Amino acid sequence: MLFRDVVIRGQKGYFWGWKSMTPNLKDLKDLWANLKYFLYLGPRPELDRWAYWEKFDYLAVFWGVGMIGVSGLMLWYPDFFTRFLPGWALNAAYIIHSDEALLATGFIFLFHFFHTHLRPESFPMDPVIFTGSMPLHRFKEERPFEYQRMVEAGTLEQHFVPPPSRAQIQVAHVFGFAAVAIGVWLAVLIFKAVASGALHLF
Predict the structure, then answer these.
(1) pTM for the complete prediction?
(2) What is the DSSP secondary structure assignment for residue 41, as one 8-state letter?
(3) Which of 36, 64, 78, 127 could bridge to 42 as Cys pair (CB 3.0-4.6 Å)?
């Protein structure tokens, strides 16, 4: 889709501007402002379409996929790769593969979950991921720049949808909490395995 829009259709704004996932100076300012907000030293930053942590989430996947993918292939086909790589490369691949998996899991629970579900306005779970919509007052408060842009362009009402039913919210909460419970349990097992492996080194 990116190739089609940029190369074939010649659309602009994918690599810079308000609808781009490319980090920019405003993201650094928002990060600094958010740190001050956490310490009660300033107001909450006014965000645009993408927050700095959402861009980080998006771009971190590319690094993780490459690292865990290449190291996984090396471990899957050791005979092939040791034809032109030294044996210690498999040890390095094992460390990279396991540490990247641990890093991804830890990042999701310590960073992504905090910004998504553990904030006071969305605790204990943000149902947006399941319903695909959010209340207008929350959108206006969390993304004031995008809200103002839609108002000025006269496109805000095009995005209005009926609120999710009570049954939809209940299903979202049941599925969401079940997924969180499974994820927490898997994270506990991963950390336990890493800790037991580390103990064997001493």
Answers:
(1) 0.68
(2) S
(3) 36
